[in-house]
Amino acid sequence: MAKVAIVGAGPAGCSAGYHLAQSGHDVTLIDQHRFPRDKVCGDGISIESIQALSTMGIYPQNIRTLAAEYAPIHRFFLGVSNQIEHSELTKLEAYCIPRFVFDYLLYTKAIDAGCQVLTQTVNKQDWQDQGLPDAFDMIIDARGVSAGEVTAIAIRAYWMVNRHDVSETALTEAQIHFDRSLGVNGYGWIFPVATQQDLIKFNVGVGVWLDEYKTINTNIIQLFQQFIQSNNIARQLRTKIVSQRSPKVFPLATAKRGNQVVDGKILKIGDAANLTDPLTGEGIANAVLSGFHVAQAINMSRTSDAASENWQYLYESHFEADLRAGLGIRAWRKFSLMNYGLIWLMKRNPRIARQVSHAVAGVVPYHEVFVSLNY
Ligand SMILES: Cc1cc2nc3c(=O)[nH]c(=O)nc-3n(C[C@H](O)[C@H](O)[C@H](O)COP(=O)(O)OP(=O)(O)OC[C@H]3O[C@@H](n4cnc5c(N)ncnc54)[C@H](O)[C@@H]3O)c2cc1C
């Protein structure tokens, strides 16, 4: 059995830790923070993430009993600049859960499976000094975006609103707005994240791609203000706020072409390996799944060299096709053309509407939407 160090205890690191400890390895899970800790995120636990969590023995019924704060999501809303929108009911349930709550759930699951935990900052340049390569047979880098390549930037705020000031639909609906007012490719979101009390918590934010963001003469805080100003739903919700937490900015490591998820003997997973969806910024599902597959790569290999090779192979066979399809759509997408055109089509054709909503919600992969549109 191998001695494995996992640096980073977010969803990717906890998933890898859980699976490796379950299969008998000696696992040390290292994070710079004590848990529970916050992570800036939209807090959307998509249907794909819910499926991925079942590999860790976490099911919707556990979420409902273990999570102190959550919102069950039944409906996905896609909108473009207030003018055209589509709302789709899904039979499968997704969730929104503040990461402070969600990540701790995964962390305790990894500990219960047998991981030892350590609170320590480990930077790659210190790994040698801190003796990691000598002390461990294998090192998994799960340090999130700080170890990946930054490709997008996003901002998140929490708004507290009285239950009687919002519609019942708003309590179970995840809204994504491709808003032209941003002036760059990106999106705004309005997600309910805690709906159990009289005071409802909403997560409201904006994400944009870095290459375009660099070319505009504004900053992410101004883009966030612009989104709220120009979006009817966000503007109305803002008038109902009874308390709020100031917005926080955080980078994202979305997919890139020709991705290498192995760096010598270091296996990269989650955001450290740029596994976030290049269209929606959703990264939890792939973080959890990459933890599962990296554990498989280690389990089926006799040497650390073979584990590295097998992890790159599993990455290419399980993740690359869909991330590439997402990158293709992103490259092709222009606000006024594709977003409008697509939602126009969705309004006229319920089958397309369902497929696209389900792809955004993570029920079907992007490349399958292309296939189904041909029929
Ligand atoms: C604003 C925003 C909104 C998003 N919205 C969504 C969403 O709604 N749904 C979704 O699925 N995804 C969303 N994402 C993406 C999602 O947050 C990430 O894809 C996901 O957190 C990746 O998990 P991870 O385990 O790879 O990394 P992380 O969750 O970032 O975990 C990395 C861990 O490594 C630790 N660490 C970092 N450096 C060191 C170090 N040097 N030493 C020790 N420990 C270290 C950190 O403390 C952290 O605990 C969003 C991202 C942003 C920025």
Q: What would your notes on this structure say?
A:
By secondary structure, the protein is an alpha/beta fold. It folds into two domains: 3-43 and 100-149 and 254-324, FAD/NAD(P)-binding domain (3-Layer(bba) Sandwich), CATH 3.50.50.60; 71-97 and 152-252 and 334-375, D-Amino Acid Oxidase, Chain A, domain 2. 39% of the residues lie in helices and 26% in strands. The longest helix has 16 residues, at 284-299. The model has no long low-confidence stretch (mean pLDDT 90). The chain binds flavin-adenine dinucleotide. Residues 7-13, 30-33, 39-44, 46, 49, 121-123, 142-146, 154, 156, 205, 250, 252, 270-272, 276, 281-284, 287 line the site of flavin-adenine dinucleotide.
Number of strands: 14
Low-confidence segments, given as residue ranges, are: none
Radius of gyration: 20 Å
Q: Please tell me what the overall shape is.
A: globular
The kinds of small molecule bound in this structure are: flavin-adenine dinucleotide
Could you write a compact summary of the structure shown?
By secondary structure, the protein is α/β, with parallel strands linked by helices.
Key words describing this protein structure:
globular; FAD/NAD(P)-binding domain; 2 domains; eight-stranded mixed β-sheet; binds flavin-adenine dinucleotide; alpha/beta; 375 residues; D-Amino Acid Oxidase, Chain A, domain 2
